[in-house]
Task: structure prediction
Amino acid sequence: MRTRTMIAAAVLAAACALTACTGGSSGSRHKLYDSIDALAADSSAIVLGEVARQRIEGDSTVSSVVVESAPTNPQLGAEVAGGASAIEPGDVVEVRQMTAPYLVSGGQYALFLTPTMLEGAAASQYYVTGAVAGIYAREGDSLHRVALDSGDDLPETIQLAD
Result:
């Protein structure tokens, strides 16, 4: 029995290594999104804002985003421990990206965010939900997905409500 357990553990570890199945700060994708509601359910916040500045921390780019508004969705935070975050206009949120940064300083975005769950100062930062799935660039009254090749089945464009 012990041998079977050890073999099963070794197979699971190998499978995780082959599929980038790591935890916490890895930024790996284990879920693809097929709707804005599903993206919102895995997010603790949705913000519209502008990237004020960026800095490098280890293997991550951290963007400071000044929040213009924090739209809601009936599903917001439904699948996140702790539920929705209390973010208000004027707040500055720090967004950590481990992929090539899709956010640029001065750019305006709608971002679906989830807590990093990291230790120390990074504990108050956020990841973009779905690595790049939750990034929409703002152009006037429209939001456009920045990563159309992410594998997600999300709308390419969202119109902002009046």
The radius of gyration is 17 Å.
